[in-house]
Specification:
Elements lengths: L21 E8 L7 H13 L3 E8 L9 H11 L5 E4 L9 H13 L3 E4 L4 E2 L3 H34 L12 E5 L4 H8 L3 H9 L7 E5 L5
Parallel strand pairs: 1-2, 1-3, 3-4, 6-7
Antiparallel strand pairs: 4-5
Length: 219
Amino acid sequence: MSPSSFLGAVFVVPFDTQEPMKAAIYARVSTTEQTAENQLIELRRYVEARGWTGTEFVDRGVSGAKDKRPSLDALLKDAKRRRFDVLVCWRLDRLGRNLRHLVTMLEDLQHVGVAFVSLGEGIDCTTPAGKLQLHILAALAEFERERIRERVMAGLQRAKAQGKGLGRPRVHPAVIDIPGGSVRAAAKAWGVSKSTAARWISHPQGAKSIQVRRSGDRS
């Protein structure tokens, strides 16, 4: 099977063909009800047709919007250690959570000398055409970033003109009564250890700012 038969894309990677390249195969599905096999079948065929050896990284039931994806995180760590030569994915939306994240990831891969192939879009970032596509993606990411900044600034100006307060609302400190006025007495009254009582007094209900009102301080 010729590599050119994969979704109408032709990829040329200028590496020494005497030694098989190591490929990282990445696939992702957003829910556990979905299967990644459709992606993996195409990816395995492509890697086999190129004569590469492949290691699979699959995130199952992981949304693309999440910052942390176990298999992708492991893949990127291996990329920094140069444990593979090329990353192959089915489509770009399987890899990056947004355009900016995708471009940053591809630039990081390029920096450590790892090639990139996306079957769906026919992208190969080791060729002149692929590098041009990467520059276009970077320009689009910058455009998206500027558009977001403009919308944020416009929203802030509109809120200010309407007299609305900006920033996070103030969080009132939590108040806790200490039975007996000491950690020892509180621990005895609550039936817990002194260390637990001290922790409750220091951080009641996970509040960041605490006011401790001792029982003897009441007016």
